Amino acid sequence: MNSIELSHVTKEFRLGQNLSLRRTVANMLRRLANGKGPEPNSFRALDDVTFCVTPGEVLGIIGHNGAGKSTLLKVISNICRPTSGSVRVRGRIAPLIEVGAGFVPDFTGRENIFLNGTILGMSRREITRKFDEIVAFSELERFIDTPVKRYSSGMQVKLAFSVATSVESEILIVDEVLAVGDVAFQRKCINRMEKLIHDQNRTVLIVGHNIRQLERICSRILLLDSGRIIADGLPGDVTKKFLDETTGTSIHGSSTAVGELVPGSYTGEVDITSVEVTSVEGAAPLAGLTTFADLNIKLALDVHSTLRKLDVTVGLHTPDMVFLVKTNTSMAGRELNLEPGRSTLEVRLPCLGLVPGTYGLGPSLNDWTRKAIWAGDKLRWLTFEAPSNLRSRLPPSTLSYTNAEWNLERTPPDQQ
Fold it and tell me: What are 272's strand-pairing partners?
């Protein structure tokens, strides 16, 4: 039996300004006389959404701002009702949808724990029993008797998360609040959620923009766009589709250019006029790329002045600007000297074990002091696909792979 079931759920909101009393009465009289009034402008935040969640499943929901993610969680939490369709939830819900929701600013942290816990369905005895645990996890012992209006947003989310995850519920709903706390607390929250998932078999719905974090936590991900589900499946497959669309690449494309080569840092001494990427030496530019293939990059340079002891760096980064691979000429013990005119620089990155997905190419040219002469990122988007014979054997929950040699030696019984 499913914990959550949504069937053809649509949620519409009326757009426009609030009407005056005179205008409202006039519209009402017009409806009474003619049977209809002016049609209001409406916006569909959710459009015919259907899916179900099984007990113990961890469902991530991703999409661009305005895709309908938060509205979907509010409909499931019964904070707002759908315009049409049905929502069925089996089990107690602990929603953590907005920072500070349910908190009274003038109340202290202590008072808000009891208030928020009561709103979430906890008894006073249960709150009292778990009070010390809630305060300890939130790390707010010194400020627990301070009014919440003096808390930062990070402090509020710490307290809210501590209360919500202390509720003995079957379903936990989290909406983007983990991005508010500091890095240490985010890690602490993830560890608690993993404990709730594995030890207590809770059903979790989580919305967020940290794709790597969701890939680690979730067993399944939904992709929303304009209120509709456009992808539903394994985390790696859905996030790849989302990142492909975000970067403007096709799902099956190998790599694409993104307009002109515009540097982020530039002194005018040299220009990178073109970038060619191939997976096999001598192949046509922008050929298909596969995990563990050699990557060949060719940079066409237009040098305007003499440059000595130049250091060139080439890296590949995720769409959220995390560099996974970097190399430079200094590592290879090379110092480049360039004379005015045109030159071509080639670099080969052997056996790149990148997880299937989309990556940006970011080269930079620096002088001997490491000052950037020409630097840019996202100059090319490269999409890596896993070889069909390896796809089912690659380890999950990682950003890259590496080849290794394995050896197993059995200890003789007389030496055990």
Answer: 301
Q: Which of 36-40, 163-167, 209-213 has the highest mean pLDDT?
A: 163-167
Answer with the residue of higher pLDDT: 33 or 400: 400
Q: Domains plus CATH for the chain? A: 4-242 (3.40.50.300), 255-385 (2.70.50.60)
Place of tokens 């929303």: 224
With contact defined as beta carbons under 8 Å apart, do 248 and 381 qualify? Answer: yes
Other beta carbons within 10 angstroms of residue 249's beta carbon come to 18
Q: Looking at the DSSP assignment, which residues form a beta bridge with residue 334?
A: none
What is the predicted pLDDT for the residue at 115? 92
- Report the SS3 class of residue 407: coil
Question: CA-to-CA distance for 195 and 178, rounded, in angstroms?
Answer: 16
Predicted confidence (pLDDT) per residue in 274-321, tens digit: 888 887 655 545 546 888 888 889 999 999 999 999 999 999 988 778
pTM: 0.69
Give the number of residues written for the chain: 416
Q: What are phi and psi of 124, to 5 degrees?
A: -60, -40
Q: Which amino acid is at 123?
A: S
Residue 225 bridge partners (DSSP): 228
Q: How many helices (H) and strands (E) does the chain have?
A: 8, 21
